[in-house]
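Protein modeling request. Please complete all fields; requests missing the sequence field cannot be processed.
Requester role: graduate student
Desired output: 3D structure, token encoding
Chains: 1
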Amino acid sequence: MQERAELPESVTTLLLDLDGTLLDLAFDTHFWLEVVPEYYGRPRGLTAAQALEQHIRPKLRSAEGTLDWYCLDYWSRTLELDLSAIKSKHDERIAWLPGAQDFLRRQRAAGRRLVLVTNSHPETLRIKDRKVDIAPFLDVMYSSNPFGVPKEHPEFWQRFGRVEPFDPARAAFIDDSPAVLAAARNAGIGTVIAVTHPDSSRPPREPPAGFPHVAAVADLL
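Delivered output (221 residues):
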């Protein structure tokens, strides 16, 4: 098992995931596994559990690893629901992970450039930013959607590097997805750190093999 992660003093750019790294993934878990099934099932005479297992979960599995997985427009069409309106109505669980704001304040005080790199759809990012004020803590925010591929894809990092120049050797990337962490490491980012407790509604995850890790960004010095 890898040792607890630390940020090297040489890091000048922090590339940060959103959901499960800065914000509590508990909102997304609740939204997709409880709220959406309820809205989908009700007009079809299905319980939320039936809607999830018989219809929604199979559709999610078929899109996993693609940009559609994260695309609010795609799921609104596929499920015939106004997910933007539903997400805005049920936004009470959108929240920062404990200590994340203080972590960002410390990193800004240290002079590091803070760059959000999220697979969240731009509309989802807008809803969450409106709820908890993400933008003021960061220098710039990017959604993978305009890049045409998610962060798991090598091409994303090539395209991203053309619009956000940075020195990979002096950059750190923090995320909760092993597939995304692997893609970032393969893209040459010098420090890649896993978050192992992205969702306060669920137990911590086992640290992904081969990656330094912390339970939360608040644990990074």
